[in-house]
Input
Amino acid sequence: MDKLVEREAAARNPLTAAPAIAVQFFIIPLLVVGATVLVYVGFRSLLTEDRSAQEYLTDIQSGGSNRRWPAAYELSRLMGDPQFVKKQQMVLAPQLIKAFAASGDDDPRLRQYLALALGRLTPPIPAEARRLLVEALNDKESQTRISAIWALGSTGDLTVAPEIERMYQSDDAGVRKMTVYALGSLPGEVGTATLVKALDDAEPDVQWNAAVALARHGRHEGVNVLRRMLDRDYVQRAVTRQQQATDDIDPVGEVMITGLRAIAALKESSLSEPVKALSQADKNLKVREAATETLRTING
Output
């Protein structure tokens, strides 16, 4: 019955119903995967598409240096399917924990993707996995720290919230972005003070994620930031990734759509006018459609 209630609540909430990466802007693929994927394209021919999890684990544990981290990437990608993880968890968890524990002096990319894989285990994850991820928050490589923050946030374990919160003190903007993302993914009111503080961060996309995270919890402190997320000219100046001629994705539009979903979740009527303007005039059809849906939600 509790699961049914959760599903019904998610269906009513346009923010929680959307895929997590789309909801929380696009920092996950950009920061966690980043340029590594571009490098990985050259290695992918070494791995077949239909290999088993156990084969990937064998490569991680005993393969050459040019096979271990690509195998970890493929395994973390395979574990994006919750049903697969549910069936394989008893076998995967102890081997992933062992591999991550042994990866301290290995290729940073291996640790990065193993952390992602640990974060995709079905909660509650084993205590040893949680301990290793908390230790990885002090890793010398920022990408590993970012992956560990994401993984801890994905566990839904409120006891790790203080460990995640302290990472907001980092000078690394990528670490702060992921910290805000992770705090927003945890249930309840944990991390609220940090999220409110992040509304004034020097990096616009940290502010955006903080506003969206607060909206997910029904809090209105980020409304002014959400208002700015509807301003295409402003967002255009802040987004560093530019749309390519062959690219179907409008990075600026994605930010605006995320802001619209957050506004819909809050039913923030004070933003009705800018939302209405987007529904009528934005150059991106997806933005116009999202604005129209947001208006419907606001107006009940």
User: Anything to note?
Assistant: Confidence is low (pLDDT under 50) at residues 1-42. The CA atoms of residues 72 and 194 lie 32 Å apart. DSSP finds 20 helices and no strands in the chain.
